[in-house]
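Researcher: Here's a chain I'd like modeled. Treat it as a single chain, no partners, no ligands.
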Amino acid sequence: MAQDQDFAVIIGVQAYPGLTNLEGPENDARAFRDWVVSPEGGNVPDGRRGQNFQPGWNGNVRMILSSDYPVVNAPNDARPICADVQAAFNDLYDLAEANAKAGQGTVAGRRLYIYMAGHGIEPQLNHTALLMANAKERRFGFHILGKDYADFFYSAGFFAEILLFMDCCRDYFPMVPLTPVPFDTRSDHAAPDHVHYLYGFATKWKRRSRERPINGQTRGVFTTALLEGLRGGASDGNRITAASLRSYLNECMQLFFDPQSLQDPEIPKQPEFVQFPSEGDGLVIVENVPPLRYDVVIHLSPDTMGKRVQVLGPKFTNVAAQTVASADRWPLQLPRGLYLAQALELGQQADFEVKGTGGTVDVQLRAR
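Model: Modeled as a single isolated chain. Structure tokens:
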């Protein structure tokens, strides 16, 4: 069932006449949108499944990309600018006010997704900013403070759940003034009792994010890992929670870097998260998502033929797969985790780990 009370604002800025152009933000924004509207993902209604919410919206999704605007050479003419993004948030504010007047409570909806990709800075700690297309050196005030907007919707109680993901650098520029959220301060004192959120950032404070060619497209490393997790890599008991997504990215984002970046100590190999409530699973992002399964090949010796071979799952207490050996290769697919392959009659064993991405895991049984 479509989540009619869920909304998504998705921003991908990669054309910067006054800075270095990027190649990945639009690919990442489109990929995130595909997950957001998928019935197996966020299931947010788009224009193909209902009427537009406002001009510029497709259903409940507002996507703003560099390619929505003409190609220009002068930073002063470049878009999107702050006003373009602020207009999307204005619509959500107006929706909350309209609902209040209609007696539906001062809420805009159930869940809000905010996704931002492009060049970024952090003028002050915990104020991560996405630079707009008209930014250039010494003119970084043209930015949108993603976390500040998410915090506003949290404190106002406009949504029960807020998910913010920012795939951008967090270079420290303390001389840059903050471009504030243009709404009067609102506070729902009960918000901590009924509003949950998860904020995810591609990198740490003062550090940079990375994009690279992945499967024939330039992609942000954080967003690629994020979507792998949301599509099942982070599934924990057929559901993805804030905690399971954090755990997946903390363990697996490094697997999506190129070898050179992996060796660079200045590049954090884990993202950064802020979650409320901070304990336990946090909000349930999506349910009924089976864990992704990855290719494994167990290599068998001639003396195992006709004998039972099995793979024990996590903690080695349950049988994840078993077969009677009939060939020198036993291909199978397994979710992430630690496993033990064994041919008990022969005393052959091998422990191995399925990390969650990359090529096939090759396992050779040996006598112990």
